[in-house]
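Lab meeting, item 3. Inverse folding demo.
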């Protein structure tokens, strides 16, 4: 089925992304995987190519185009290239909206030019050792000291944690319990008492730095409060739909790409004197995955279009996220199986996709949380 989601401008942007990947990412990616981190030069190159701050106003150095379809193209191409380590989607689609919608004019002028150039890499610190999806469990706290906050606590599993120059920290700013006493404070590189722990050793996405962060009496200026005081819960809920859509887009793109390379493999690989593709079981496996991908693609493209028009709700974003990522997980497993022993070799794309993609059903809200959101909307 021919996709009707994109225009000629989107496809021209796709070619720009592919050129960037071929020149600035793929030649270095194996080394980044060994190093456990992406070179900062790659972020600056992405800024020069106009891949950062797509939705940021041009006066701050951004692309000035809030059409989510450009972000979807970016996610699709990075996924197909097998290069999730350089987390442009996190920077653009998850953190960007906080800065563009909540920042004061002074904050925008201070942070957005670097955000768009790649000089300022960003992260958001929500998860704690004892609090993941449950915001009520957050213990990191900030005490009001007049002209500044004193921040104490720790965070874990923070993507871009080592590279980040700006970290949006979710902290408790009232002693009362519950999720409604939380605020967003921006901690900047070099602030005294802000320390980074180890670069966590993950099973996949090795080049994407993920770290523990520690805050020991960090003085955060009042000017670094992002959005409303005690308003973090509402701010976080507002931006979650786009975060989940970005993950879902990568999920279906990964499943489709795995299906493509596995279809080629079973046509070329022989067993018992004939290509695997001649075996009925193999044909059924490919037919099932192709159908699941086609049906999911139709739903995802509708969600992308709705989000680009500002009409996507949290429930359908949750549906897209859990379904596409669970499909990605199933397809990765089945495609690895169809590759046989080769699928278990780290140099094969299907092996890397298997480990890189496993996190998809966990971060951005687990599958179980997505189902809870959907179930509550239907059953109260």
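The presenter then showed the designed sequence:
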């Amino acid at each position: 089925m021919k996709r009707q989601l994109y225009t000629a401008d989107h496809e021209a942007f796709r070619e720009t992304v592919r050129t960037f990947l071929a020149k600035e990412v793929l030649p270095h990616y194996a080394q980044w995987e060994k190093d456990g981190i992406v070179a900062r030069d790659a972020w600056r190159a992405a800024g020069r190519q106009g891949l950062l701050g797509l939705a940021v106003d041009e006066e701050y150095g951004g692309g000035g185009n809030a059409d989510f379809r450009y972000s979807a193209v970016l996610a699709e191409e990075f996924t197909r290239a097998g290069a999730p380590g350089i987390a442009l989607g996190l920077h653009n689609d998850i953190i960007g909206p906080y800065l563009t919608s909540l920042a004061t004019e002074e904050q925008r002028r201070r942070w957005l030019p670097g955000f768009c150039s790649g000089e300022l890499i960003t992260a958001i610190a929500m998860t704690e050792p004892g609090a993941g999806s449950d915001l009520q469990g957050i213990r990191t706290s900030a005490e009001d000291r007049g002209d500044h906050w004193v921040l104490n606590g720790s965070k874990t599993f923070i993507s871009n944690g080592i590279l980040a120059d700006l970290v949006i920290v979710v902290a408790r700013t009232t002693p009362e319990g519950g999720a409604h006493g939380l605020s967003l404070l921006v901690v900047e590189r070099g602030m005294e008492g802000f320390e980074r722990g180890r670069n966590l050793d993950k099973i996949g996405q090795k080049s994407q730095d993920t770290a523990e962060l520690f805050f020991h009496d960090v003085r955060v200026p009042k000017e670094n409060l992002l959005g409303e005081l005690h308003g973090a819960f509402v701010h976080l809920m507002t931006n979650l739909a786009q975060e989940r859509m970005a993950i879902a887009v990568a999920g279906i793109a990964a499943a489709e790409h795995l299906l493509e390379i596995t279809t080629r493999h079973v046509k070329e690989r022989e067993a018992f004197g004939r290509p695997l593709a001649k075996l009925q079981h193999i044909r059924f496996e490919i037919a099932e995955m192709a159908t699941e991908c086609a049906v999911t693609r139709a739903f995802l493209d509708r969600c992308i279009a709705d989000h680009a028009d500002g009409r996507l709700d949290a429930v359908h974003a949750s549906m897209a996220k859990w379904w596409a990522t669970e499909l990605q997980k199933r397809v990765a497993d089945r495609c690895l199986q169809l590759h046989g022993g080769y699928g278990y070799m780290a140099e094969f794309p299907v092996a890397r996709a298997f480990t890189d993609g496993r996190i998809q059903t966990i971060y951005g809200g687990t599958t179980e949380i997505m189902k809870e959101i959907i179930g509550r909307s239907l059953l109260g």
